Amino acid sequence: MATLENKPKIVWNEGRHRFETEDHEAFIEYKMKNNGTVMDLVRTYVPSSKGGLGLASHLCVAAFKHASSHSFSIVPTCSYVSETFLPRNPSWKHLVYSEESKILKSSI
Fold first, then answer.
1. Are 17 and 23 in contact (CB under 8 A)?
2. pTM for the complete prediction?
3. Active-site residue identified among 10, 56, 60, 78
4. Is 78 a catalytic residue?
5. 73 DSSP β-pair partners
6. Could you tell me which of 97, 46, 56 has the C-alpha nearest to residue 75?
7. What pLDDT, in 10s, does the model give residues 43-99?
8. Measured between alpha carbons, how far is residue 2 from residues 17, 21, 107 in Å?
9. CA separation (Å) from 23 to 31, 67, 98?
């Protein structure tokens, strides 16, 4: 379990459309869609030298927290997000974009 001391610092690099570690080596990349209301998580990258540290999960959490705080939906195009992160962290599934969530948001 991560403690505050060993939790990696994840920064938002808006210009490069990604969340990344401070050293810029590991990142999750996104594309904004639907007039800036949907964040498509397209790629997660962690170098093999940093594998096994849970960085991909930390990157996903940063992206999902950002989406939540800005009322964005998420499209989990990246296979890590859809096949590993979301099944392990089902509490984030409410942010996943669907036609139904689009209808619900537009009717509010």
1. no
2. 0.86
3. 78
4. yes
5. 38
6. 97
7. 999 999 999 999 999 999 999 999 999 999 999 999 999 999 999 999 999 999 987
8. 26, 15, 40
9. 22, 23, 34
